[in-house]
Amino acid sequence: DVKVTQSSRYLVKRTGEKVFLECVQDMDHENMFWYRQDPGLGLRLIYFSYDVKMKEKGDIPEGYSVSREKKERFSLILESASTNQTSMYLCASSRPQGGYTTNEKLFFGSGTQLSVL
Amino acid sequence: EDKVVQSPLSLVVHEGDTVTLNCSYEVTNFRSLLWYKQEKKAPTFLFMLTSSGIEKKSGRLSSILDKKELFSILNITATQTGDSAVYLCAVGSMEYGNKLVFGAGTILRVKS
Question: Do B15 and B111 meet the contact criterion of CB atoms below 8 Å apart?
């Protein structure tokens, strides 16, 4: 089975701190994603990557950056945490299928509940 | 603007009941619709539908897609307490490349 591991289940940080959320997958997937999940809003895509050192902005990239130095690891960085970044953060991975880089069958990590005080 | 709308937002049923969850969408160049179940924290994949009118089944769960009317339903028969979860609908598009657009989810609680 694919395993996507997020380094922390719960994290409490103060405003202004730099925060690193780590995600590792063990199935050699090319595609990796960071979502945040808020009640009533569903999952919203922050950033994704379809190869090492490649990154693409999602729908809500402001206030975030990412790093993909190795295929299995995708990090989400909050440069200066703010209270409106309190949320559940979900990492996911997938393998491209055929000639398309598709995102079907995302495999998710267990999430990191981040509270910014 | 592309969007995915799920209904109801939440519901409570008793064990043994049958439930139907709805997902409507508006996307450019539709490619696929996916259902996920989220217990605790990690969403797990249930179904992917790409062709209209074809039912996908797995045990007590089934789903069908209507590409003409732009919606999908997820049916759960003989519900059990273990079905309590958030059910997420997501849509992929030829326009998006690697992205999925998710709905807000339906919270299902099954009472014993």
Answer: yes
C-beta of residue B85 within 8 angstroms of C-beta of residue B76: no
How many CA atoms lie within 13 Å of A49's alpha carbon, on the beta-carbon side? 24
State phi, psi for B95 to the nearest 5 degrees: -75, -25
User: Once rounded to an integer, what is the mean pLDDT over residues B29-58?
Assistant: 88
Helices then strands, each counted (H, E), chain B: 0, 11
Assess contact for B47 and B35: CB atoms under 8 A.
yes
Of A48, A94, A111, the CB nearest to B41: A111
Q: What is the pLDDT of residue A101?
A: 44
Q: Tell me the CB-side half-sphere exposure of residue B41, using CA atoms within 13 A.
A: 19
Contacting residues of B for A1, CB less than 8 Å apart: none
Q: What is the DSSP letter of A9?
A: S
Upper half-sphere CA count for residue B82 (Cβ side, 13 Å): 3
Q: What is the pLDDT of residue B51?
A: 75
CA distance A43 to B112: 30
How high is the pLDDT of residue B17?
97
For residue B96, the chain A residues in CB contact (below 8 A) are: 103
Among A106, A23, A97, A109, smallest CA distance to A66 is for A23
The values of phi and psi at residue A35, to 5°, are -120, 155
**Residue A3: exposed, middle, or buried by beta-carbon count in 10 A (0-12, 13-18, 19+)?**
exposed
Asked if B44 reaches chain A (Cβ–Cβ under 8 Å), the answer is yes
